[in-house]
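Fill-in record for DUF11 domain-containing protein.
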Amino acid sequence: MPALLLVAPAALLLALPAAAAPAAPPVPPAMSIAVDDGRTTADTGDRLDYTVTLTNAGEKELRDLRIVQRLPSFAKALDAADGLKVHGDEVVWRGGVRAGDKAAFKMAATLRKPDVGQLRATSTACAYLGKSQSPVVCAADMDTLPAGAKADQAAMTAAQAAEGGPGAGPWAVGGGLLVAAALAAAWLRRRVRAEGARALA
């Protein structure tokens, strides 16, 4: 009898249906996006000519696609290609992209006087599918403003002083570029999180 008591619970467990495995998260479409104005510095009054390019690297057509470009907060939209809609500092393109193909649009803006402490003119471009408010992919373009150039120079000077002289220059330049890249990545992450929060609101 003791043996039967030990075996019976095991048999009951084997008879129970196996728990369903959690569903795998959906695989995002194979796409990439880029935004570029062909320059790295900018100043008040400059005209910035942006090109936004989305590449469909997948095997299926991307339909009901929406691309939203956000201009720098102190920029004014100028020329927009046909099919674009401009709402304040947002530029919206809608359409589809065939498998293995690209879609691109151009947008021009002029810079007004930036806020005090503004170091870079940043524009982002994000791609959405359907009515979703959560972007699939995003990219950013950053142009250094005069205040940003002064801040970078000050950081370089401080790095040279800390390292013991001008010989630290190349390292300081590299460090400044890494800091700028980190700032761009952090800014883009905040933008994506903000888009996600907006979708949940």
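KEY FINDING: The chain has one domain: 31-200.
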